[in-house]
Specification:
alpha/beta, eight-stranded parallel β-sheet, about 15% strand
């Protein structure tokens, strides 16, 4: 297997609005990030993925871009950004920018021109259609609720928006539009950035004709996802992007891809395919959702998680590359989700980190994950800011008269705002995030859970993450070894074996609040040489059979 720097890197995602506010306006900014780079250097990460900082009216917190070559006023200036890039590089780290090119803001100059007339040169930069029988061109539902079409009176046509109505979809069928995007990408790469994380990039190719989706009983709008996820020209577009832009630079690329499966991912990340290096799959993030989607809560079955992670580990081994993540700005906090954020917060956060970081792939850490930030339970819907959450609440409670308390419980568990509350730096007012009024409330537990406390406690989650990062640098087996699941049907233990050359790595984790005995199966040959890491103080033992695991215990052995 070819060795590459991006396979051996650890990525840290910064959601700038919530990271650190340097000027007291309640909004995180670029100068704030620059001031905190030494903290990230101490953690040991290699690459910073910066969520969008481009000019935006902020309908979807920066994922609605009105100017790709300007910095959002709230975040600072281009000079601030260039200083940040320089300071990151001086510390031996890299910067990956967020690329949002499935859609723009409706305030982007292209769209402003596009809506002026049907014969405007920019008209075909977007997807416009006449109505059908006095209604929308098709029955697709937006990801944020309601129709995926918005009527524009001026030209008597509708434009497509798979997300907010202020996020019109770009028309990738138009070669001129594609060239504009490639020129913009080169502009940023020539400034010295080290890669792109690509937002919902597998949605850019739509099936011609935009057919209706299958309506379920009682629904007004249907999912059209089978007509725009992994569409007919997606690989052609990405190969063109690679040929014209990506292949000319030594960079990291990862594509966010809702609905991608292993077989599709092999095409996107295959070494001979010349598309992207990694994808973000959503499959493991849907395992605690019922048949009615994200807000339909169900408990995680560990056997489902093991089966899914194993499928990706096996499926991409030797052919593509995995991205490893538990958290990001669109997901709730993992320690609250798959761990135990009360009695065993520290133990379960360390266990979850171990289970993920010992897999093959490039690990992604989301801000605050490294010291165990948790979900939040705001008392009122008025405390929430996320457009998806607010739209869902309105649709369910206001329009459909659903039970307020039940809907709030779904929000407490799954809202994207769980991952967007301000970074908890210390126990000072507003958690040290700002001297002003934060744009969204701080989680009330910040006095107990904060970075300052974690950095000063050698047994903290923070220092455990540092240890995991160091081990990945020291042991090629963690990066490049193959993978074998152990005890697939066990509903408490997630254990697996990694093998590389003559070395073996045995990873054992307990996903429950109960003690459990680990017995190594007879068909697994493993002789332990030393214990690499454990989240409990445990003596190193030469044999690993009949091992009693404490609640949420994780232990890793190196052997042969």
């Amino acid at each position: 297997m070819e060795k590459n720097w991006w396979k051996e890197s650890i990525v840290y995602q910064i959601y700038p609005r919530s990271f650190y506010d340097s000027n007291g306006d309640g909004i995180g900014d670029l100068k704030g990030i620059t001031k905190k780079l030494d903290y990230l250097k101490e953690l040991g990460i290699d690459v910073i993925w910066l969520s969008p900082v481009y000019q935006s009216p902020n309908d979807d917190n920066g994922y609605d871009i009105s100017d790709y070559k300007r910095i959002m006023d709230e975040f600072g200036t281009m000079d601030d950004w260039e200083t940040l890039l320089d300071e990151i590089h001086q510390r031996g780290m890299k910067l990956m920018m967020d690329l949002v090119v499935n859609h723009t803001s409706d305030e982007h100059e292209w769209f402003q021109e596009s809506r002026k007339s049907k014969d405007n040169p920019y008209r075909d930069y977007y997807i416009w259609r006449p109505g059908k029988n006095g209604k929308e061109p098709n029955n697709w539902r937006s990801s944020f609720g309601g129709s995926a079409w918005e009527y524009d009176e001026h030209t008597d046509e509708y434009y497509l928006h798979l997300f907010s109505k202020k996020q019109p979809d770009l028309n990738w069928e138009n070669p001129k539009l594609r060239q504009e995007i490639y020129e913009m990408m080169r502009w940023w790469l020539d400034k010295g950035i080290d890669g792109f994380r690509m937002d919902v990039i597998n949605l850019i190719s739509k099936v011609p004709g935009l057919p209706d989706g299958d309506l379920k009983p009682g629904e007004t709008y249907a999912s059209g996802s089978k007509f725009y996820r992994n569409g007919p020209r997606i690989h052609e577009f990405l190969q063109e992007m690679n040929r014209e832009v990506l292949s000319k630079y030594d960079i990291m690329t990862v594509g966010e891809m809702p609905g991608v499966d292993v077989e599709e991912a092999k095409k996107y990340t295959g070494y001979e395919r010349n598309e992207l290096q990694m994808v973000f799959t959503f499959e493991h993030m849907g395992l605690d959702s019922g048949k009615n989607g994200k807000w339909d809560l169900k408990p995680l079955a560990l056997t489902d998680l093991k089966e899914n992670l194993s499928k990706w580990q096996k499926g991409l081994h030797g052919t593509g590359w995995n991205s490893l993540y538990w958290n990001n700005h669109d997901q709730p906090r993992i320690v609250s989700r798959f761990g135990n954020d009360q009695e065993y917060r520290v133990e379960s956060a360390k266990m979850l980190a171990t289970a993920l970081h010992m897999l093959q792939g490039t690990p992604y850490i989301y801000q605050g994950e490294e010291f165990g930030m948790t979900n939040v339970r705001f008392p009122s819907i008025k405390d929430y800011r996320d457009i998806e959450t607010l739209n869902m609440y309105h649709e369910k409670v206001v329009e459909e008269n659903a039970n307020h308390n039940q809907v709030m419980e779904s929000i407490y568990v799954k809202s994207r705002d769980n991952g967007r509350t301000p970074f908890q730096w210390n126990d000072q007012p507003s958690s040290g995030f700002t001297t002003g009024e934060p744009w969204i409330k701080v989680n009330p537990n910040y006095k107990e859970i904060n970075a300052d406390k974690a950095v000063n406690d050698e047994n903290s989650i923070f220092h455990y993450y540092r240890q995991l990062i160091r081990l990945r640098k020291q042991h090629p087996i963690i990066v490049y070894g193959d993978y074998q699941l152990i005890l697939p049907d066990h509903d408490q233990i997630f254990a697996y074996l990694r093998t590389y050359k003559k070395e073996k790595l045995l990873v054992i984790t307990n996903f429950s609040a109960k003690s459990v005995v680990f017995q190594i199966p007879e068909n697994i040959e493993f002789c332990s040489k030393k214990q690499l890491i454990s989240n409990y103080k445990k003596e190193d033992i030469p044999h690993v059979n009949n091992l009693t695991l404490n609640p949420y215990e994780a232990i890793v052995y190196l052997g042969e």
